[in-house]
């Protein structure tokens, strides 16, 4: 998930993310492993806050509204579904909900990791709800029929305390939702399961239309941005998805301390690492999303820069030129932006949706 902007620093947020004020995700890494620029990790002088940065005009989102938005919102509320759209304050929520696209989260609301950009609560999850797949599928079935839901994105927290990382619940949820809503396209945004490829295979075997796993940032910045993840492990996950004939998707944030050259290098590396040509399957990772990072709270990594629309246009052009079939690149782009269109074009669901 790409972080949302926030007023930062309330007692509730500090309790939810027990990092030192100002945030220092490198505290467990032997210094100096990397340098992110003076604007990133600029908290080592003991200050408890980061000077706010005024957002540029191109980051202003439209106020949500309209008949489609209201209908979907009412149904989400009625069925008590937790949406990442609302939790992350996604700027595209109004547009997506009006189009019948929503993102829900399974496996609880507590993540076992503490990434430097993410606003999801961290800790040890209290329980595992084994009835969740059936409840989610029934709720989605009702929303699909009455609420205009045409494309669903499912994501989850990391559940590293579980032997399969939650993959069993993932697979059951996918199968049940597909059975309940045959005319709806389904995308999943999955964790890395700590490199447990048998667990990943359970998700692949459930055959969602699109499997997304976000790299989030460039290789150099992983110790700060994704301290519990590995860049090469995530590349291998995407390769395995593509190898078995599914649509593979990934996404990154910019403006968190990376350099433009590193974004272009990442594009090349994803294409090279995910290229497959055997057993009748050929191609590379299909979809790339690129959006502006926004700091959720003062306890998260600060914004280093506001990437301009022209720079986003360059990233899109280069992503397409270097091999991606679809690139969504812009200041307000998030993982599920235009996800229904991607499913229509790349996963061949137009005919199923029409029936």
Mean pLDDT: 80
Strand content: 5-15%
Question: In percent, how helical is the residue content?
Answer: 25-40%
Question: What about the largest sheet?
Answer: 7 strands, parallel
Low-confidence stretches: 1-52
The largest beta-sheet arranges its strands as 1-4-5-6-7-10-11
The N- and C-terminal alpha carbons lie at a distance of 32 Å
Specify the overall morphology.
globular
Number of helices: 13
Structural class: alpha/beta
Number of strands: 11
Q: What letter string, H or E per element, gives the SSE order? A: HHHHEEEHEHEHEHHEHEEEHEHH
Cα radius of gyration in angstroms: 19 Å
Q: TL;DR of this structure?
A:
The chain is 35% helix and 14% strand. By secondary structure, it is α/β, with parallel strands linked by helices.
Structural features, described:
- It is a single chain.
- The strands form three sheets. This protein has a seven-stranded parallel β-sheet with strand order 1-4-5-6-7-10-11, with helices on both faces.
- Mean pLDDT is 80; it is low at 1-52.
- By secondary structure, the protein is an alpha/beta fold.
- Helix 7 links the parallel strand 5 and strand 6.
- 35% of the residues lie in helices and 14% in strands.
- It has helices at residues 11-16, 67-78, 84-87, 93-99, 132-146, 167-180, 197-205, 222-225, 231-243, 260-273, 309-321, 339-346, 350-354, and strands at residues 101-106, 110-111, 121-122, 151-156, 185-189, 210-212, 247-254, 276-278, 281-283, 287-292, 326-329.
């Amino acid at each position: 998930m790409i972080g949302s902007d926030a007023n930062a620093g309330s007692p509730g947020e500090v309790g939810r993310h027990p990092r030192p004020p100002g945030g220092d995700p490198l505290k467990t890494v032997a210094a100096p492993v990397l340098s992110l620029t003076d604007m990133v990790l600029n908290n080592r002088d003991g200050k408890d806050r980061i000077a706010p940065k005024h957002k540029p005009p191109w980051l202003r989102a439209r106020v949500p509204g309209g008949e489609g938005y209201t209908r979907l919102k009412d149904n989400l509320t009625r069925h008590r579904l937790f949406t990442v759209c609302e939790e992350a304050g996604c700027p595209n929520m109004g547009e997506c909900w009006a189009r019948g696209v929503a993102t829900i989260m399974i496996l609880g609301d507590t993540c076992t990791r503490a990434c430097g950009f993410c606003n999801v609560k961290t800790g040890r999850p209290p329980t595992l709800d084994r009835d969740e797949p059936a409840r989610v599928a029934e709720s989605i079935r009702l929303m699909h029929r009455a609420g205009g839901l045409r494309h669903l994105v499912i994501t989850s927290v990391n559940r590293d305390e579980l032997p399969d990382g939650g993959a069993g619940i993932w697979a059951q949820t996918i199968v049940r939702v597909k059975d309940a809503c045959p005319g709806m396209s389904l995308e999943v945004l999955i964790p890395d399961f700590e490199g447990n490829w048998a667990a990943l295979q359970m998700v692949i075997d459930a055959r969602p239309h699109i499997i997304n796993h976000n790299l989030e940032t460039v290789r150099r910045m992983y110790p700060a941005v994704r301290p519990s993840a590995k860049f090469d492990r995530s590349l291998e996950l995407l390769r395995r998805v593509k190898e078995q004939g599914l649509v593979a998707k990934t996404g990154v944030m910019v403006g968190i301390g990376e350099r433009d050259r590193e974004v272009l290098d990442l594009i090349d590396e994803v294409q090279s690492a995910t290229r497959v040509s055997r057993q009748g399957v050929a191609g590379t990772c299909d979809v790339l999303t690129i959006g502006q990072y926004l700091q959720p709270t003062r306890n998260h990594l600060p914004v280093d820069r506001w990437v301009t629309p022209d720079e986003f246009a360059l990233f899109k052009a280069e992503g397409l030129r270097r091999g991606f079939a679809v690139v969504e690149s812009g200041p307000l782009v998030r993982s599920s932006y235009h996800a229904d269109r991607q499913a229509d074009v790349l996963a061949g669901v137009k005919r199923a949706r029409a029936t």
